[in-house]
Write a structure and sequence with these properties.
Number of helices: 5
Structural class: alpha+beta
Largest sheet: 8 strands, antiparallel
Shape: rod-shaped
Order of helices and strands: EEEHEHEEHEHEH
């Protein structure tokens, strides 16, 4: 998604992005992936924003023979606000309405997939006030736009290390101090993490 600096409006790099389902992954072992030694002490490390940093730490900890796994968690961010009209009954009806809007110098495009197929997109905003302002301008021009809240997420990476002994805990702490000193760590029971 790329920002347009003057208006606060953002435009999708691809119109298909707006209808892609969002992957949600939580903590804990899945049915397919058993927890690491579920009665031992674990160290939960994170959140890490960059996969490259998480992968590097994962490899360094694994090299010390300490069982570790990397977890991804999709975390909600503030939503986007999509201003649109329609959807219309047919594709040809949507394109006829689009031509009319473009003739009136209204920046827009036909939505070609998803729940709003054959609707017309008028803009996507990070700021709800900007979306409402556009909605009011289009109402004044005789249109009936609606606003859809579009959830957004970012990925956090976490490492779960089965530390067991105090020496393993010290080894992991040394790796963190050298590679990612500001990264948080929390001692937990592995069973707690597996049951979330």
């Amino acid at each position: 998604v790329q920002e347009v600096p003057d208006s606060g409006q953002i435009l999708p790099e691809s119109k298909e992005l707006l209808s892609e389902p969002l992957k949600r992954i939580g903590f804990g072992a899945s049915e397919d992936e058993p927890s690491l030694l579920s009665q031992q002490n674990c160290l939960l490390i994170g959140p890490l924003r960059q996969k490259l940093v998480a992968s590097s730490l994962y490899e360094r900890i694994q090299a010390t023979q300490i069982p570790t796994r990397m977890l991804e968690k999709e975390v909600p961010r503030s939503p986007d606000y999509w201003v649109y009209v329609g959807p219309y009954g047919t594709k040809s009806e949507a394109f006829a309405r689009l031509k009319e809007m473009q003739k009136n110098k209204i920046d827009s495009f036909v939505i070609t997939e998803g729940e709003l197929i054959n609707g017309i997109s008028l803009g996507l905003f990070r700021n709800k006030k900007s979306a409402i302002a556009l909605q009011k301008r289009r109402v004044a021009q005789g249109y009936d736009p609606k606003i859809a809240e579009i959830p957004r997420y970012h990925t956090e990476y976490w490492l779960e290390s089965t530390t067991g002994s105090g020496q393993n805990m010290a080894d992991v702490s040394n790796i963190l101090a050298n590679e990612a000193p500001s990264t948080e760590k929390q001692k937990i029971f592995c069973k707690t993490l597996a049951s979330e």
